[in-house]
Design a protein that fits this description.
The complex is a heterodimer of chains A (about 170) and B (about 110). Chain A is α+β, with helices and mostly antiparallel strands. Chain A contains three helices and nine strands. Classes of the chains: A alpha+beta (about 170), B mainly beta (about 110).
Chain lengths: ~170, ~110
């Protein structure tokens, strides 16, 4: 009776493996919603997908650990923004840019916006000093995060809360 | 909106060789907001700046990818190291194929 039993086992294992593989594939496939939107627009500047901030962090950085960088990243924002349509933000880092160790990119992410990623700043060593500033639109009171991607691949994050009196996204 | 694409660059009035220079750039642009109908975003080609390229001495030194969560008439600031006299150029690209440029001459005093 031994041969038939092992045969059953093998079949079941094969079946489970096949199912597992199928599951992985469906996870790895891109979200069809995003894809169709990008194609319909037919331009390189598609909109960021509407998603929660956790989904954005996962999409951008995967499972990479993000260290607390509040000691090296100076994230400057108003405490209270009266007009959510124009909220000045600046990100500055204490370490200078050198070819050995520099900031490759700074992401500015606002947690409660429908599309949390607001801007990605790609920097290079000739800049000498990592500093960027811009004006954001914020829909409501929210945390704003600045994530710096260093040249060695590590990620640092600083976070600040902004109170917004009048939202700036207009629906 | 005849003014779309006018770029203003501000640099400090006196720069010394090797200085870290903070530059402020402003461009006139509507940065169109996503419109909604019945709670769903309207699918159309929105008009906003999605790329900013900074060139100094003919090298790209920084590139910003922006979205419509940046305010109307966007303002950007950045720092760079002035190593040689030359032209600093900031190019803005929008989703309707627009290309707006602003230049500043870097001279040492």
């Amino acid at each position: 009776m031994a041969p038939p039993l092992s045969e059953t086992r093998l079949t079941r294992r094969a079946l489970l493996q096949a199912l597992g593989a199928a599951g992985l594939c469906s996870l790895a496939a891109p979200d069809p919603g995003i894809l169709t939107l990008a194609l319909a627009q037919g331009n390189p500047g598609r909109l960021e997908p509407e998603e929660s901030v956790d989904a954005t962090m996962k999409r951008l950085f995967g499972t990479q650990p993000i260290k607390d960088g509040s000691s090296v990243i100076k994230l400057d924002l108003p405490l209270i923004a009266e007009n959510g349509a124009v909220v000045p933000v600046s990100v500055e880092m204490t370490a200078p840019q050198t070819p050995q160790s520099h900031v490759k990119a700074i992401y500015i992410i606002s947690d409660k916006n429908r599309r949390p990623l607001t801007a990605k700043f790609t920097l290079s060593p000739p800049l000498g000093y990592p500093y960027v500033a811009t004006n954001l639109r914020l829909g409501e009171s929210t945390d704003v995060r600045a994530v710096a991607q260093m040249s060695d691949g590590s990620l640092l994050m600083a976070k600040r809360e902004v109170k917004v009196t009048v939202g700036g996204c207009g629906g | 909106m005849a003014e779309i694409g006018r770029v203003r660059i501000r640099i400090p009035s006196s720069i010394k060789q090797g200085d870290i220079v903070k530059v402020r750039v402003l461009v006139i642009h509507p940065m169109e907001i996503v419109q909604r109908k019945d709670g769903k975003p309207v699918d159309k080609n929105y008009h906003f700046i999605n790329r900013v390229v900074v060139t100094y001495l003919d090298h790209d030194i920084a590139q910003f990818e922006t979205s419509q969560s940046i305010s109307e008439n966007p303002f950007f600031a950045f720092a760079f190291k002035a190593v040689e006299p030359g032209v600093l150029k900031v190019t803005f690209l929008d989703t309707h194929g627009g290309k707006y440029e602003g230049t500043a001459e870097i001279k040492f005093s």
